Amino acid sequence: MTGSLLSDTMRDWADEAAVPPDLADRALHVRGFRGRSQGLRRHGIAVPLVAGLATAAVVVAGLAVGGTWGPRHGSGVTSAAGLDLRADLGDQPPQRLVAAGAVAVGAVYTTRLGPIPGSTWSTMHYRWSVVDPGSGTYRPTDWAWVSVAPGLDRAAVLEGPLPASRIGIVDTRTGEVTRWITTDHPVASVAWSPTSDELVATAYESDPDQQMSEGKDAFRMRQVERSGFVLADATAGTATFHAVPASTDWPSSRNDFSWTLDGTRVWEQKAGDARMAFFDLTGAPAQRDDVSAYDGNIGTTSASMSRVSPDGRFRFSIDSGIPTQITDTKTGATYRQQALQLLAWADDEHVIALAGCEQPCTGTAEFRNQLVVMRYDGTDVVPLTGRRTGDNSWSFALAMRDAP
């Protein structure tokens, strides 16, 4: 059960002075149960937390990297082994574009818990900064939810408080809304399809991030109904709702839909070995033999990315533990990387990872971690961002970008 899993994890770090960002995600990840930090909060059960864990959520939709650093806070643009690299090591969260090869950090965000007016409940507020591809910087926004499209030229946004009754399409170069798409069911997340022509938005009857304090370092989530998903056409401006009841075994109110890599289905996270439940674009469950091809999918609410390298040679596992592992699909050879989690492929041989780093850097230190890029065999590690700690926790959303 999630409660005992969290208790075990907390005991592991009970004597430490700080809590690493994304601890909740990686605790579930390593033990074969993927989910955001919200996934630790079972309906009606008070879950103990360590200070700082509330900002542990990570949305994966792109990548961050760096090479040689210029004079401005260790930021820089360079190339290595033909891979275009951009980094911001000095700002927390990054203010300048972070990217490697075909992937970029499309947005960064922080979270804070705030009261709900007229209620005894509180909710999680997301503070997003969105990439401006023209200036190569991240622009602070007031949007409650953001998904950056492949190519980085557009973003889908939701107004707060969540859930919202319409989806905005934003030009990332100007920050201006170019279209509003009205939904007949309120939605609390939105994600671009891999082809950047459709959106899937997850519908909730009320705010899925509500929680109530249950004493020192503990809270409970408010049970909220997830009613299904909305498919929106970004060009035509149309939206269609499809009813899909929430999974009974998922331990959180928030369980957003994501796209498969080919954009023909959507999926939700599930507890246990199943991990994912797939649905066609009408909301009908997909049969097991129909979804076996998606074994390489590791999407999140912001994007879906493959565990397999673009040329098909390498594949990384989400169950390898620490250190991580990549397998050569042709020879069967395995390679270990001193990293906490592998996230995306920058090109055929380089992978984006979340790596811990202390002094000296061992690559798996939990409490100071950063985005890096490295070769499949774990060599040539290049930092992409500054080190995140419990004191400066921030999260990122990856997105595919046009070839530099």
Quick synopsis:
This protein has 404 residues and is mainly beta.
Low-pLDDT segments: 1-73
Main sheet properties: 10 strands, antiparallel
Secondary-structure element series: HHEEEEEEEEEEEEEEEEEEEHEEEEEEEE
CA-CA gap between termini? 45 Å
Helix content: under 10%
Rg, Cα atoms, Å: 20 Å
- What amount of the residues lies in strands? 35-45%
Per DSSP, the total helix count is 3
Question: Can you tell me about this structure?
Answer:
This protein is mainly β and 404 residues long. The protein has one domain. The protein has three helices and 27 strands. It has helices at 2-12, 23-30, 288-291, and strands at residues 47-48, 75-80, 83-88, 99-100, 103-115, 122-132, 137-140, 145-148, 154-158, 164-171, 177-192, 198-204, 210-213, 218-221, 226-233, 239-243, 258-259, 265-269, 276-280, 314-316, 324-328, 334-337, 341-345, 350-356, 369-375, 382-383, 395-400. Strands 1, 2, 3, 4, 5, 6, 7, 13, 14 and 27 form a ten-stranded antiparallel β-sheet that branches. A hairpin with a 6-residue loop joins strand 18 (265-269) and strand 19 (276-280). The longest helix is centred in the N-terminal third of the chain and has 11 residues, at 2-12. The radius of gyration is 20 Å and the shape is globular. The N and C termini lie far apart (45 Å).
